Amino acid sequence: MRTPIIAGNWKMHKTIAEATALVREMRRGLNAIHGVEKVLCPPFTALSAVAELLRPTKIRVGAQDMHWEEHGAYTGAISPLMLKELCQYVIIGHSERRKYFAETDEAVNRKVKAALAHDLIPIICVGENLQQNEAGQTKAVVTGQLRAALRDLTAAQARGLVIAYEPIWAIGTGKAATGAGANAVVGLVIRGTVASMFDESTAQSVRIQYGGSVNPDNITEFMTQPEIDGALVGGASLVADKFVAITRRAAEIRGADK
User: Distance (Å, rounded) from C-alpha 53 to C-alpha 222?
Assistant: First the structure.
């Protein structure tokens, strides 16, 4: 059974003081939830403080991005060597990185390989925008992004990844995809692509999240879908009781220790 994973992407929110206050507010509630892997992804400035607060718990830490080089003249960049001391996960290829920072499929692939080389687990984001969705291009776009991201990986490496299907038109808009619609993309397109690149066993092993306006009111719709293994949560992860409620509900529905 695939262990569900709920990750909170705080994006460019929370000072160090605000981040530590939020962690203290949600830490006990999250740590009491079993059968679901829990990950918090604060901004770089708060990674160290958050990691220290979560060290005694079962809650894991993720970064929101990284460079593929270990060191060098890359002003403003963060390397995998810097991250591996602080976190276990790293989000790669988020649509906001692609849109605002011109991140390419090639860059995503290089980052994925670098993360794996340094024992960081990539959460690879794929998803189509509204125009592509309405034009019936979801399969082509998601397949293309995924094939590029997983290029030259082994099946063993692919099994350890997390993939997040985040339709861009649903991120931060309050307009989530339907559970059935997301499940179809996850099962037929994403798992289908992984199976074609590697094998069916690998496709069934990899964990795939849904992301895009996830909240306590709609998490049930997504977690009752058989192909969806969790959520990459944005805005709701910045509110302690909402994120705890999302995680608790995911555990009630799909907890691995049930």
Answer: 30
Residue among 37, 103, 166, 221 flagged as catalytic: 166
| Total-model pTM | 0.96
3-state secondary structure 85-127: CCCCEEEECCHHHHHHCCCCHHHHHHHHHHHHHCCCEEEEEEC
**Catalytic annotation, pick one of 37, 67, 94, 96:** 94
Please give the single-letter amino acid code of residue 187: G
The count of structural domains within the chain is 1
Task: Examine the residue annotation and report whether 34 is marked as an active-site residue of this protein.
Answer: no
**Residue span of the structural domain in which 156 resides:** 5-254
Domain of residue 194, CATH code: 3.20.20.70
Each residue of 43-88: pLDDT tens digit?
A: 999 999 999 999 999 999 999 999 999 999 999 999 999 999 999 9
Determine if residue 89 is left, alpha or beta; phi over 0 gives left, psi from -120 to 50 gives alpha, anything else beta: beta
